[in-house]
Amino acid sequence: MLTRRGWDTWKLILLFFCPALFVWLTAMVIPFFYGIFISFTKWDGIATEYTLIGFANYTKVFNTSKFWLSLQRTGIYTIGTVVLSNVMGLILGLLLTSSLKGRNAFRTAIYVPNVVGGVAMGYIWQYIFSYGFTRIGQSLGIPGLSTSMLSDPAKAMVALILVSSWQLSAYLMIIYVAGFTNVPGELVEAARVDGATSWGVFWNVRIPMIRPSITICLFLAIVRSFMVFDVNLSLTDGGPFGTTELIALRIYNTAFVSLKFGNAQAQAVILFIIVAIISVLQAYFTQKREVQM
Amino acid sequence: MFKKLLAILTALAMLLSLTAAFAESETHEPVTISYYSTQAGVDDETVATLNEFMKEYPWITVNYYPCGDDQLAAWLALYSAGTAPTVSLLDCGQILNYSDYMVDLTKVEDPSFFDHVLSGTDFFQKEGDSAIYGIPGSYQGFSLLYDKTIVKKVFGDDFNVDTVNTADKLVEFFDKIEAAGYPSTVVFSADWALGAHYLGCQLFSEWLGDKATQRQVMADLKAGTYKLIENEHFNNLMDVFDILMARNINKADPLADTQEGDLELLSHGKVATMFQGDWNWLVIRTFENIDELGIMHLPLTNDENDARNLKILGSCPKGYCVDKFQNTPEQQAAGVLLAQWLALSPAGEDFMVRLIGSTLPFDNVTAVNENPLAVSTQEYLNNGRILDCSTYLCEAPTDFWLVVGPMMQKYLAGQSDRATLAEEIQEYFADLD
Amino acid sequence: MVERKSVKFWLFVLALLLTVFYLFPLVLVGMNSLKTTGEFTTNPFSAPSRLVFENYPQAFNQMHFLTSLCNTLILTVTICVLVAILGSMAAYVVSRIKSRFVSFFYYMMIASMCAPFQAFMIPLVKLYAAQLGFTNSLVPVIYIATGLNMAFATFLVRGFLNSIPLEIDQAAMIDGCGSIRLFFKIIMPMLVPIEVTLLVFVAMGIWNDYLLSSLFLQTQEMRTLPMMIRVFCAQYSTDYSPMMAGLVMSIAPMLIFYLLCQKQILAGVVQGSVKG
Fold first, then answer.
1. Which CATH homologous superfamily contains domain A65-288?
2. Of A64, C83, C109, C228, whose CA is between 20 and 30 Å from C43?
3. CATH architecture of C63-232
4. What sign has the CA pseudo-torsion B260, B261, B264, B265?
5. Closest alpha carbon to B40 in C211, C232, A119
6. What is the reported pTM?
7. pLDDT reported for residue B296
8. Rounded distance, CA A143 to CA A137, Å?
């Protein structure tokens, strides 16, 4: 930490930190508190006056078993997606920073899933699952593949995890590439000179050096998985018969189909608290183990 | 003397009417209003139609707000921003939900435009309230879409589908088609298709009884005192659904279909019937070399004399409403002019009929409809053979299809039975607050 | 040496396989953008029977492509610049200064990344459009998107700032360097790889953003590319083929941008190598 004291430090904070703080407060925090306020009302979406109903929305949400079921499903989905996407992202990061011919071309190609956007990707994958795999399964006579994965609750969840990990790993790959690029070549050389094997280099040099990347990627993966909406909507739309309705989709439907805005806000606040606790704790503990130069 | 008086009086009268004419043309202060349409995907054509309106009414400027995907969210955002659209083309359920903010169109200066409406105003009325909150924007018929080409091949050119007037005769109809080598039906598995169209609209329609009975059943369901499984109509409904399920071409994997896929099967003669509606024309017309198609009724009982067996379901899905919450009285007046022009003028009707392929429930339709399914609907409408589903569309909870649709999907996939389905529906209603 | 060569070969094969895995859905989109919609819905996986190039001009016109491209570019560039500068400055403070004030707000910022956008979507409209009057304008989108990305930027850059040793700051300060010069002339150039990475992420998010834009951009002239893609979606049917053509055209600028960024990340590494 810098050792300047007193006013100098505060000048720095004011000049460098407060602009960002101000924009963040006004663009995110204040509206969010407004949203929390709405969760204590019964609101129809248009009225300019709000009828306060205290904690009624929260009680209703706590007593709705479907809400907790959806949350549980989202938790399972998150674990699967976080693990798979980070493993794949790490492999991609490592691969695309090794001495490989045409590295830039490969990086750009694998980056592509990021730019197509969640909804379009989901629809394309839906066709792949409903048409593509089934036709392959039927012509090759594989019974398991002849019916669409999306028609079975368990398989549909697997499909959702696969597609999300596919897309998320392309996203995390970018961070891992930056992280592996930053591993000083001298350290790797020094380790090799000392007789370390490739695996040794990987585990004892590369991984510790990319701890910041791992922190960021784990955090992003957890948050994005808990909040997933686009792919959920376009790939399964909560189907088959509601068994893959994850929590963000549920909140959206509560607001814009059931028109229960206060209830939806309460659900969103509860979701926020849960995800915030999990991910901040995760970030805090992983950051403690980062290598500080 | 008398002649002079007459001359003076006539001159006075002419003078008065002249000043009145001047006065009228001077009360047209320029006014700016806005229009929001949930008819997605035709923005450029909508703008062109609005430009024609502005030519006829040069003192009114109309700003257009396109809707995108999330129709209701964008509309609510406009309200939150303080820029509520003056006129909106919305689903009837949404208009009634927010009727507190809408102009009562029976109270406008000149409500004579309602005289042209054949049917559908009750979709914009609430129980016990004489106010009408919307002008019908379109009309939809739905029931069993069928491939006329196949039917002609199997039954001959003079076959009249009206002879299929009982559930048993429907089974015979399907059997004969299958014997000739054609799969008889496909069941489209979307939650809105099963929940809203098959179950919701058919359950809460004339089949159940008159409007008062329908409302009573809904009220009893909400009170938790109704036993759906004991209702004869519910059982007839589900019996016929079982027939359709058993003959579903997608039986092996009933939930993996898509709307386009199923319609392609119907259009290219790979299946004979499909329970859907005349709006499907927008997809069907993108295919090449399609068969001749039409709509026929779906009989639910075995009583030959039951007139309901020969009717198709009809609904007024969208209507034009005028906002009074964030629009001034001048804007509201201009909005009423726009709404009735969009609904009933030749240009407005042409837009709906030719571009969207929709039927219109008005008596002054001159535009020619290229949608053969809508032509079928118009025939049924003209002959009074319509089962009105306004109770479901206007009074059922907005998320009925979202929650009950998946229950039907489970049934379709063979993972639920009738008793469970009935109980789940009862639970849904009892759980509403 | 022989062992090295075969390892390289297998790595290349692996990269190729992975590329196919990640790229084939886009290839499908490209292929289907050259079919008619009816052909696409009949069989999404067949090769086009004839190449329907007309989908592209159709998409171009229906999407009002130039206008929406312009709007999207303006949004992306301004927001990227704002986020990169403000976020990096904040990250510098978080990394270098021990202060409870800063730590508290830093962790609040991280927590705020977990806030579901739907929870404060409507309040945003009420505050910025109804109260402050920013309707149908790019300005609120720019301001709000900057605020939404701030926490991510700070989080990302801070991690990498921690790997830049404090000695550099101290050396510069001993030489009499003021904070602003220190930050912009010495620290920032060393952050180029992560800045570019940040730009890539933020640009990607804005380029694809639909929800935030739809709240504040109401008329057709103000709409962005992701909003205009929806122009092909009617209520019960979608005109898939021109929509896919539109998708391909929308993706192209982002891919080019990313390709260019690759060189920058490499260049930054060479420049920023810290020696002793």
1. MetI-like (1.10.3720.10)
2. C228
3. Orthogonal Bundle (1.10)
4. negative
5. C232
6. 0.89
7. 94
8. 7
